[in-house]
Amino acid sequence: MSGGVHLYGSYKGTIVYVSERGQEEPATYSCFSKRTRRRERAACKCVANVRALPLHHDQQVLQSAAIPPGVLWTETKVASKDQSASPTDSGEQRERLWREFFAEHSQWWNGRPEKVNARYPDFKQKKTQDALWCEDPQNPPWLEEEMAAMASGTVPLDSSSWNKRLTRYVKAGQYKKTLELFQQMQQEGVGPNKFTFVPALNSCASLQALEEGRRIHEQIIQSGCESNVFVGSTLIDMYVKCGSMEDAWRVFKKMPSRNVVSWTAMISGQVKNGQGQKALELFWQMQQEGVKPDPLTFVRVLNACASVVALEEGRLVHQQIIQCGFESNVFVGNSLVDMYAKCGSMKDALRVFNKMPSRDVVSWNALLLGLVKCGQAHKALELFQQMQREGVKPGPVTFMAILNACGITKSLNDGRHAHEQIVQSGYDSNVFVGTSLVDMYAKCGSMEDAWRVFNKMPSHDVVSWNAMMFGYLRCREGRKALEIFWQLQQEGVEPSNVTFVGALNACASVVALEEGKCIHELIIQSGCVSDVFVGNSLMDMYVKCGSMEDAWRVFYKMPSYNVVSWNIMLGGYAMQGHGIEALALFEQMCEEGVEISNITFVYLLSACSHAALVDEGLCYFESMSMVYKIPATVEHYTCMVDLLGHASDLHEAEDMVKTVPSKADVAVLRALLGACRLQPNLEIGE
Questions:
Q1: pLDDT of 619-664, one tens digit each?
Q2: Does the UniProt entry include the keyword Repeat (predicted)?
Q3: Are the C-beta atoms of residues 247 and 239 closer than 8 Å to each other?
Q4: What pTM does this model have?
Q5: CA dist list (Å): 561 to 77, 539, 581, 665
């Protein structure tokens, strides 16, 4: 071979060179380890005018590199033309390796199950690292017949190879495949060890496959690996994610030694199961046992503080974070901002936020959501502008927070501007962002825009439908809200408790008793009838549609009541003028220890007014402040003025108006004027 030689490409383990005359000459390589690739690049650098070139995928044309005449790059060394190996020698070597392979399979790694492309060898010698490819053109002619005769799995993987393979599938998110391989591994006679159990348990956790996890737990006990701290911690994590805290506790208590991972897994499980206070107790117990928390532990504990609104304990945890030097950790910082915001201390949240050395979009989201929750929607809109000035790209959660702020403040223009940004960012197809857009437009009174966004959404969930329905309810369009409910049913979307509440409110607003009864049947079929909020909405619908019998039937069947349930029935009696029944119901409330609210007395005094029970009304009005310690409001004074006016006691009604602590409300004066009209009294009326 003479003249310049150019590197053309690689194909199935062969580097192909092309001379100036266009002749192709192969030079084989047999190892893909990082060490070998480094040696190959170093060899290239030893030759004039040749640059080190990385190996690429099959058949990909590489950058040309001029090689001096008479020089070939073979395997990991540069050789002269006379010293270069001939194709015949290479073929003989390949045949020798294959014979060694068939003679003793156990000395070769089986790379076929892990093969991602043709560059990777099918088999590799464990000691010498020699590699073999089934598709190599220099393979002996008898290979195909031998390979066909060799049964699948003749060259088994050892436990180390299986562990690597399982771990790789877990990292790739192929959890079902991981569990299948775990079973296959044992079927092929390879016993699992502590490193095998960890990826298998992680797969069970991700799939929430509790029963499969329990079977693996039994194998762990049989293998004696249960005492291993890493296996134990993974077991706890699996049980926690599968929702079995009892099993998690059992494993936790049996562990001979526990590390920070074990404690953090238990703390995380308690938070996930709504046991924030227990999570905090575990955190303090962990430190008493001398285990130091890490950043993830602090993140989980701060989540616990936020879930139970434990501001003071959150501040103590914050002090520990400073002492441990984790305050600069962005994840810990974000959790601190979130904790303070959810505990209602926006000053502390802003203080932490401003001290953070680096802030990501999660940091901004935590602060924005906190401001919206604490009723500082205008401040959230200002912060959103600052976030964009600092070059932070908003995400879906950011836009959801801002759209909520726009809806609260009725800032339709800001909402439309945010909508434009959402379209530009490509988040308009996100169902959660789309639902927030619908909700924002509905709260701002622009149902046309809400409907336009709703129709453009690629898919709708029950929350999207609820947003449209409640939007029409806010705009006092109960009939359209009902149409949305029936359309939702036609499209096969399963209504939630919130959906039923909205539909019942729509029936009440348009006095649609028959439709309300149909929805009641659907509620019974769905099993939502036991929900106290759905039950209250049913009673309210029947009361407003004038069917007290149906309302009572629902009331008696409810498994539990709250003060709202009683108030609805009391208000129904007041609305229909059944004063005696209302008083009897109030006495029953007191006997059952129901907490009386100011709304309760509004309905009670209204019932007395409609039934002209003056003495009873005066007695209840006095006991409201003296016995129940509930201060009288404008609504209570309005009821009393109406009561006295209907009883022809206009002078006492006028005196009642004068006793209102603040300036008389329009409603109070209207009640007095109405009484003057019923009992003609021009002097007081003027």
A1: 888 888 888 888 888 788 777 777 777 655 555 655 566 566 665 5
A2: yes
A3: yes
A4: 0.67
A5: 85, 12, 19, 34
